[in-house]
Amino acid sequence: MSKFFFHNHKFANENNNKKELIQSSKTNIKSVVDINILLNRVKLKKKNEIKQKVIFFSFTISAVSIFGAFITMIK
User: Fold this and answer.
1) In the chain, how many domains are there?
2) So what's the pLDDT on residue 39?
3) Which end of the chain, N or C, is surrounded by fewer C-beta atoms within 10 Å?
4) DSSP state, 22?
């Protein structure tokens, strides 16, 4: 699609034909997958998620307790 612009008393034709490159993927290649590596990766992800949850809840509980202590000190 061509577009015409009028700028500085000149017409410019802009044609934006972009070609998309199609990447071919080879699906015939067989690779060896070690199930133990995959299971260990899942276990590590679960451990990290549990650690993050514990840290989040501890910060939340400490923030609530500090806020409560601050409120009791004001009264």
Assistant:
1) 1
2) 96
3) C
4) P
